[in-house]
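Forum: Protein Structure Q&A
Topic: Joint prediction for protein chains with partners

I've read a bunch of threads here and the consensus seems to be that you should model interacting components together rather than docking separate models afterwards. I'd like to see that in practice. Below is the full input, 655 residues plus whatever partners are listed. Could one of the regulars post the assembled result?
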Amino acid sequence: MSININENSCNGCPKRKEGRCERICPGNLIKRKNEKAVIENKSDCWDCAACVKACPQNAIEIYLPEEIGGKGANLLAEVKKNEIVWVIKNQSGNYKEYHLAR
Amino acid sequence: MEISEKNTDILIIGGGAAGSFAGIMAKEYAPDFDVTIIEKAHIDRSGCLAAGINAINAYLTPGQTPEKYLDYVKRDSNGLVRDDLVYSIGQGLNRVTQKVEEWGLPIHKDEDGNYLARGPRSIKIDGENFKPILANKVRKSRVEVLNRTVATNYIIQDGAVRGSYAFNLRDGIFYVIKAKAVICATGGAAGIYRPNNSGQARHKMWYSPFNTGAGYAMGIRAGAEMTTFEMRFVALRVKDVLAPTGSFAFAGAKQVNSNGEEYLKKYDKINTPIRLYATVQEEKAGKGPCFLNLNNISKEEGEELKRSLLGMCPGIVLQWEEQGISTDNIKVEIEGTEPYIVGGHCQAGYWIDKNRQTTLPGLFAAGDVAGGAPKKYVTGAFVEGETAVINAIKYSRESDFVDDIQDSMIKEEYNRVIRPLKHTDGITVEELENKLQDIMEEYAGGKSKSYELEEETLKEARILLKELKKQADHIVAENHHQLMLAHEVIDRIEVARVLVEHLIYRKETRWPAYQTRIDYPERKEDWLKFINSVIDTDSKKIKIIERDYQSLK
Ligand SMILES: Cc1cc2nc3c(=O)[nH]c(=O)nc-3n(C[C@H](O)[C@H](O)[C@H](O)COP(=O)(O)OP(=O)(O)OC[C@H]3O[C@@H](n4cnc5c(N)ncnc54)[C@H](O)[C@@H]3O)c2cc1C
Ligand code: SF4
Ligand code: SF4
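Posted by a regular:
Agreed with the consensus. Here's the joint model:
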């Protein structure tokens, strides 16, 4: 499993000592380079989605690697005070939303 | 690397479920104490709880008692558990649940305000945010947290644990942390066997790939007694994405083979290991793959299941999207995972007394790293964290900091830790890891072998691992992150060696699928005893010790 970090949406969490995603990855996999977050080794990712939920810019999406049947769908999370909205985008570009209490 | 020394009254290694809970409790029971947690990632999301969980799986719903909890755990583990440990966990489960609710964990309730039960020992929670809730409470309690600090070995003097060595991933500082008492809470070990998934999905495993058995390895190297490594844990999971099957079972799913037969009907007693064992048997008989079939639920129930899975395994929702599975006709393929060593589901870990003290004075253990009490899950880890800390406080009041650690001792560990950075050529982390996983897969009952074990191949594994340990001396790392990875593999080799000795020694089949000996297929009354091991710190040989089972009744 792995993530993509959208370079255009990532603003590098300015003024923070660490990017929010960089801070919370349980595998220490994300680093900021030139004010952009990058994942060093995608195959080390556990798929916990902690970074996806932490990013205020919604710059991180999670996808299934080809090895386990990924064909291009991805998943984003918008975290609000009392809920998380999970947004799935499938191969044909259609969106589905799931609202979860938190 | 710069060397930095510090003192703390109580040192907790690993800031996951057990470690965080222990830290908070330490400040409650001993506000005057300095309490430090070292955590190799960041406490906000580290460990098994990173993604969040949707249930508390060890809780006594109305009508349940610690006695019944013990009976259940014992039955599920075919009679062999540490009754004293399991019982004391049963006594604390509801107390710790109430605490985390007070700290902000949302728990589902029925109209009367009672917790909503999923089963006799399971309640539903909105646990996506579980770890941040714990981490906030740790901060509020004024526990010192050293994030990105990787523990490597204990400081030992006269056979007692007096602190820990560690290094920081970001600034490269090498720490010598002296403490009056130490609690190990580093979780279990993944990555010992070849993972189910490969390539970019290789870390898509059930257990946290970042828990790599550091606490076990540190204990093994220090001569602590370990128990029941041979009871490996294999989870029955949804193929590829390894989503948990429990939520499906609670929704009424049937396990069927490729012919559509409900194969669990062949078994009269169905429990967690049997569900897995039965599936492996169907596959072996050519009736695989097996599925979870949920074709008789409403679309709404299906959507509800999907949402409950999203919180802990978003991958499955993506998988359904990719495969076009609709929620009114759910049929998912299931399989066993690679084996893990984990004391919270099975019972591999430190041999501890009822105070959670290990056989090394000054060292306590809690959670997945502590042995003898399977099925304790997150709340059991909390209970053990609390028990460990109460006794660590008592111990600390009567001990003091080690005053003179010999420089040579510090230097020796420092050199061991940084050695991979000094190598320019040698074996890479990836190469060494692959070799380890290949050996264990082939010769020590991996998934492709239907988890089956036999003496002859295990002895082969023993020889190969001995050789591999020598190769590990030549592992290379180019930066601090790789240095952490290098030590993770070194630690896993240590764990694998002890595991293989345990597997060789138990000459019966006590826990089918977790520990199936094809050369000793029966379960035997005279093996109702614990197999423990300890390394002789001088000769470095692994010695096996038998310990009697003791019934509480
Ligand atoms: C995917 C998954 C789902 C689960 N779902 C449920 C559920 O629904 N209900 C339930 O009750 N239980 C569940 N559990 C079980 C529960 O999460 C564990 O029992 C519990 O987290 C164990 O606590 P622990 O403190 O022993 O380990 P962890 O919480 O994993 O903590 C170990 C910590 O030690 C740190 N560490 C490791 N090595 C070092 C080192 N060398 N130096 C410093 N720090 C180190 C790790 O980074 C980690 O933070 C689940 C477990 C998993 C893996
Ligand atoms: S999904 Fe989890 S493991 Fe993967 S990069 Fe994000 S935080 Fe790290
Ligand atoms: S959290 Fe988002 S915005 Fe901040 S560094 Fe990470 S990807 Fe960039």
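The pocket of iron/sulfur cluster (ligand 2) is lined by residues A 3, 25-27, 29-30, 39, 45-51 (CB under 6 Å).
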